[in-house]
Every structure is written in structure tokens, then in C-alpha cells.
Fold these 2 entries.
Entry 1:
Amino acid sequence: MVTQLTGAGLLVAWGGAMIALSYYIYRRQSVNDTEEFITAGGRAQVGLTTASFAVTWMWAGDILGVPQYVGITGVAGTWMYAAPAVLSSFVVIPFALRMRKLFPQGLTYSEYFIERFGNLAHLVVIFVILYTMVLGGVIQLFVGGTVIGGLTGIDPNIVMAVLMGVIGVYILLGGLWGSMTTDFVQFVSALVLTLVFVPLLLLETGGPGQVYEQMVANLGSQASSFLSMANFNAIEDLFLPYALGLGVWGVVSLATWQRVFAVRRDKTSRFLTIGGIGVFTTIAMYSVIGFVGLAAFTDVAPGNLSIEALGLMPDWAAILFLLVALMVLGSSVDSYLTAIASLTSRDIYYRHLNTGASDDQQLRVARGASIGFAIVIFVATVFALGSISFVQLLLIGGIGASALVGPFALSLFWKKASQAGFVTGVVVSQIVTAYLLAASYGIVVSTPALKLWEIMAVGHLVSTGLTAILSAASPDDFHFESIAQEGSEVVADGGVKGGDNK
Amino acid sequence: MMILFWLAEAFGAVDTFFAVIILGIIVGA
């Protein structure tokens, strides 16, 4: 257990370092216009973007979640948790390549829906993205308050307020540049956790051979299934809900799209590939914490396996672990907050409320939104901590993806996809999955009680099916080449219309 | 009825896969 004083010192040191770094990048990159704030000028190098993408996907919850999976199903829990997370990076590649070809001037991917369909479709997409991004922030903060508060004895609400205050300030300064630069430092910190502390934990318990023997002894008759990669017993409860929800979450996440638009256009698939595979290796290393837990304890619930196992580390390592946990947590929350600030500035303010807004006005709104939504996420997390479990929260976060991925794909690759089909598909899917989710938890209604993966599958089928059927009945005839030619100062080859320089 | 994971992670090495996973499940069965 780390003392309250040490915990408070770590929070202050982390906050000071992140704000100082963001101020440095704000000055270095001249983050004084909307394009720099939202897309880092579209010229970020592949190393910075890959690190930022990977560490955004390394959720603080993984440190708890992966050992929990191992505690439930053994070594197979490694790929059951990691594969859906990696799937997102793979699935988003065709979307990203198509979008960067069709819509090179994009600042947020949601603006594409105005060009493709119109304002109604855009408003529907904004709604889904906004609550999905807020939920993403709440999920991270939920874990931060629980873990850091639990390890230090500081009130979780105070921990969460400090976290959101610091993140809100450094995003206000540096926008996406601030997010990606702090992400790089946080990425290196996450590597230290997996490459130094996890092996240290393994050695504290006698090394891999000793851990294996203790696992066999502790698990008894369950050892053969728990030490098999082909243990499919928990696939319906653990793998499928994540694959159908969070497995396609990257396509919906504006945080992913900001990095897609930020990286050089000729490196789009490379950063998604290396970043995605890197997330798998990181999650695989977290599973070792679960192996140690199974070897060291015989009566610990899977959900507590991670904290108990990490408690085996010496005190100095526990303090450094806490600092790394802060880093991993900050990297994800700051990405969602930057995304929300961009959405508020471009998609809501500029596209619907003040279409003649100057660049300065848009930038002011983005900066205001970074503080405003930091408060919203904090309040929502305080509410969530007292009324919902972490797993429920995590799965609700995947519902938005089940409504949007299929219709989005149809809109990108099928010229007959219509606004009526798209809007109906997304809205009806959201209503149906919300009802089924409420029924599965017995909230207001109780039938039909479907499994979580079945609810996700219904969401995908309804949204994609309705979009396809209604579009086929009353088809659009969209000319994709028209998107890149209208209303932009940047032309399709990435150059500038009417000249070599801006 | 692997801890390769460490080497793979050590990924980290800082003009404006599926086959290995499937094989691992088969071998580790």
C-alpha cells in the first residue's frame, strides 16, 4: 500500500510534468489555429502517431481486465482479451484508406457524413460519437479512481477531479499535438511496465518454471483446461461481446480518426498495423500478471487477481507502478477529450450553430469544450461509480459501434446508400439494442433476455440490414469524386488549391 | 495442456500475425 502523501506527491509530479510538456509542444508547434489543434496539421510522423495510437488503445482497465480473463479461463484469456482489441486496428484500415482518398481535407471524420448525406445523418452520427467518446472517458476515469484511490487510500472522487483537471488543462494548451506528445511519454512508461515490472513480478515468485508448477498445483483438476490455449468454454461470455462491440470500436472512435488524419497520408496502413500488433504484445504481457496471481493465490476472485498479484512487488516497485498506471490512464482520457473538443468545435459549432465562424472562434470553442467536457466526464464518472459495474460500463461503450460500423461501410463503398436508409438503420439499431440491454439487466423490462454478444450481433444486423434494404428500395446515386472537390482549400493530392503554399 | 511475448513487446524499440495466433492456439492446446 502506498501512503496518501506519496500518492498525492505522484499525482502532483505527473500533473506538473504533463502540463509542462504540453506547454512546450504548444510553443514548438505553434498550436494557434484549428487545423493544428484538431489534426496536428496532417503531418505527424509515423513513430509519434503509432505510439499515440497504441497507447490510446492500451486502456488502464487492461491492467485489471486481462488478469481477470486469465483468472476465469486460464492462458486462453490472453487471446480472448487481446484479439478483439487488435481487431479494431485491422478493421479500420479499409475505412481509413478510403477516407483519406475521398476526403483528404477532413478535420473530423464525422464531417464526411454532411458531404455524403446531409445534416440529418450528420446529427445522428454526432450523437453516437459524442456519447461513445464520453463513455470512453468515463470508463478510463472509473478505473483510475478505483485503482489509484484503492492503492493510495485517497478518496476516488479527489483522484478523478485531479486527473480530469490536469488533462483538461494540457489539452486546452496543445490540442492533438499535446495529446500525441504526452502519449509518447506515456507509451514509453507503458513499455517500462511490461518490459521491466512484469518480469520483476515473475522473478519475485520464482520465475516461469516455478509459476507453472504452482499453477498446476493450485488449479488441480482445472489445470488441463486452464493451461490450454484452446479452452473455448468462456468464448460466449468473454470473447464474442468484445469482438462485436469493442472489436469494431476503433471505426467509430473519433480518437482513432484524429490519428488517421494526423499521420502522413503515405503511412496510413503502416501505423495502424504496427500500432495494432503492438497493442496485442502489451496485453499479452499483462496476462503474465494473471499467471502469477493463479500461482500465488488459491482463493482470490478473478476480478481481484491483478491487484493481489501486483501487491507481491516490493514497495518501491508499487510506487513506480502507480506512476505508470497514471500515464496509461492519461493517454486514453486525453485522446477522448481532444476528440470531443474537435467534435464540439467543428461538427456542432461550425457546421450547425455558426457556419461563418472564423478560425479563432472555432479554436476558442475547442479549448472551451476541452474544459467543459472534462467536467462532464468527471460528473458522469462520479455518478457511474455508485450505480453501475465496470463490466456493464465497458459493454455499453460498445453499443454505439454496433449501430454505426455497417452503415458507415455501406456509405463509403456503395453509391446507392441513402440518407433515409442510413439514419433509419442507425437510429432503430440504437433503440433496439438499448431495449435489449435494459432487458438483459432487468431494468424496467425483463424480456427477451439475450446474451451480450447476441445483443451486439442484433445491433449490427439491424443497422446494416435496414440501411441496405431501404437504400435498395429508394437508392441514392452518389458520385464519390464530388466530395474531394467541394469546399476545401486542400485538394485530393494533399496539395493546396491554386498554389504551392498556403 | 510463450512468456516470446517479452521479445515481441521489446515493438517498443522509439513535404507536409493472425497465422502466429492461430498456430499458437493449436500448439498451446
Entry 2:
Amino acid sequence: MLYAAGLFVVASAAFYGVFASVAYPWNWSGVWKYRFQFGHGWLTTMGLSLVAMVVSIGFGFVLMLGRRAPWEPVRMACGGVVELVRGSPLLVQLLIGHYIIAQALSIEQPVVTGIILLGCFEGAYLAEIFRGAVESISASQLEAARAVGFGRVQTYRFVIIPQALRRALPGTTGQLVSLIKDSSLLSVIGIEELVQKVKIMNSASYAPLEGCLPLVVAYLVVTLPLSYVARRLEGRFAYET
Amino acid sequence: MKLEAQAVTKRYGAHAALDGAAFATGGEARVIALLGPSGGGKSTLLRVLGCLLVPDAGQVSLDDRLLPHDEDGALAERRGNGFVFQGYNLFPHLTALQNITLPLKEVHGMTETQATQRALELLHRLGLEGHEHKRPSQLSGGQQQRAAIARALAPKPRLLLLDEPTSALDPVMTGEVLDVIRELAEAGQSIILATHEISFARKVADWVVFLAAGKVQESSSAAEFFTKPKTEMARRYLEGLSKYR
């Protein structure tokens, strides 16, 4: 704890020194004036990230099951979706998804489109994290599950998922942290989330950087506790195999 | 039980683990030992007999009833059997007690109370009192294998199938586990046992199926097999195994 505090002081000092060396003219009044806008942006970011997390975990789980399905066409289709979504930029997916697909389906709400697109994008990564965890369960465990008379669904529920959960946890946490940060791209489809609010604030107050520091803090207050909770969970699931 | 296999074949890629294996137990065999060199097909045959594997060709009949080849039928059949493996194969995220109660509740429809009662009864009978709430990693190899036997016995299986249950254990633990199996055999449990412990097989088995290279080389009563094996291969196998014992 003391060590962490020390590190924090050293990092802050280095950071301050760098800014001092280029003699950056700080002007905090603009930031203070826009504090409610900032708060509103933060709530938007966190709200839609939270819903997108649920979507991404659900979508990732379904894709993982699809990639392990006993039917070749399903496996191929899900594999294709994963490669396509992971292999193309989120920015392009958002633009096409919002301006073309959502228009075609007449979904009027950019927030709805944004949450679905972000959830699917991160879900494709989660699918592979989940698949890695599931496939690391040894064949002897699957045989033991068959031997005690479990069917397919029971094997997933009682043997595979409880053991895979622990192995998927570190990767999943990282992906969810990425999701929160990736949500800043949603500004391109007109959602005024945190980063967009800060950009507006910076240009309105002629202060190009001041808003960025609260921005860093605003993300860290969520991502750090998320990582902490995940580590605690990992500890709780810890058992030797 | 009356057990009969006809031209059973099971392939893994180009390798035939069982290559037209056939045998029939004469009349009533209660404890059947599968013997033979490693890689000869013992484990595969055991899995086919217990419906854990469906053969590519051939069929098996148990008490004049053909074993099913479809997945649903095989599952129903498996639920009437108990399996114990070489590597224990307990579920590592569950305690010894939960390893036993979970299948009882989820597969055999017992209530929590019934399942716990049955599990505790077996754990105590197999000398695991005080270890009920430990995870497998906190148990010794012999204790894990006894917990695995308790799990296999819990639903009162018609048939208990053991695949080299002592191969991963040191001599002391092997003794513990063999004592348990012997007691079960003497109490009337139907058992199929794949093993390298021939002196144990000689004591408890009443029928022997000797396999090598995916084929049944010899199938005879234990008394006959151990006193005068019919094939040269079986004779040499027995000699080789008893050399240092």
C-alpha cells in the first residue's frame, strides 16, 4: 500500500515536471464551468457501457457455443462473424451500422444502435476468450461428466462453465475495461458521451487539454475498481486442478 | 451377468483400438477382469461395454439385451453404470461430498437431503470420514480414488466399471483401493475391471478377457486362465508380470 502510494507520488511528480517544462498555461475555469456537462457525459458513458457489457457477454457466449456446435454450417457462420467483427475497425462498423443498417431497420435511437454495435464488437473478442477457457477443460473432465450421466446441457452447466469461468476471468476483465474506453467512439454517431463532452468543453473554453485530466480520472474511477473486483473473484475461485 | 461382444471395432483415425474384438462369458460371471498389455484395447473395450463409447462396428449384448448405439440410448444406459478411471477424474471445483451429491440430484432425481445422506454413508464406508468437505486437490491419490469409487457407487449401479483404478497410485494407496474393490466384489457387486494387477485379478475375478492388439486373444474362467492359459501370448504376459512379485 505504502509502495503504491510512493509510486503514485513519483508518477505525479514526473507528470507535473513534464508539463512544467513546456510551460503549459493552465486555465481551469472552463472546466469548472462545464462540470455538469462533464457529469452528464460520464453518466452516459457508464450507463451505455454497462448495458453494452451485458450485450457483449451474452453475444460472446452465444458465439462461443456456436463455434463449438456439432453442426459444421453453424460453426463456420459463427467463426466468420468473429473474424469479420474482430478484423474490421469499430469506427467503420459504427458508421455503417448507424447510417445504413439502423436506417434500413428504422431504428431511430443512436443510443440503441450504439449499445448493440459496441456489445457485438467486444462480444466477438469475448467469444474467443470464452472458447479458449472452455477448450482448456481437459478431455478427462468431459469423460467424467459423461460417465456420471450428464447430458450435453448438464455438462456445460455443472462441469465446463464453473471451471471455465475462472480461466476466462482475467481476459474478460481486460476486455470489459477496453469496452468502457472504446465507448468513446460512439460520439461519431452523435452520442454525447464523456469524450465528446470534453471535446466540446475544450473548444468552447479555448483550453485544449484541461478537460483531459479529469477525463483520465473519470475512466480510472471505474476501470480500477472493476479490475480490483475481478482479482478478488479470481481469488475466490482459486483451487488447484 | 452374461456378456457377449461380437466383432467390436473402434477406430481413432487410422488406428484401430479395437479390431473385431469378440468374446462371450460362459454363464454367470460377476467380476470380469480385462487383462493384457498396454495399448491392447482394454480401456476402449471397457468404455464400449459401459456405453461410454459407441463402437464403429459390431455389437455388445448384456444379459441377452443389445446395447444401444444412439446417443440418447447410450446416455440412458450409462446412467445405470458406475465408472472409475485411472486419473480419478473428480470434479476439481467441487468438494468430495458435492462430487457425489451433484449427479445424484441432477441425474437421478434425489432431493438434497437424500443425496447428502447417501453420499455421507458411502464416504464413511470407504474411510473418508472427516474429508467430506475437502476439494480433490486436498486429498491424497488413494483418497481421491476412493471418493471416485463412492461417486460411482452412489446411484447403486447395475455394473461398476473400473479402468486401471490403481495405475496412478503408490503401493500403499493401491492396497487401500484394492481392499475397497475386493469388499465390493465380495458383497455381490457386478464389476468389470481393466487392470495390470494380476495377483489381485486372480483373487477376485471369476472371468478373464485377455486382449492384445485390439483383439480378444483369450476369454475363459479365471481359474482356467491363471492355471493353464491357452495362448502362448497370455502365458508370456503372466510370466512377465509375476517375475518380480
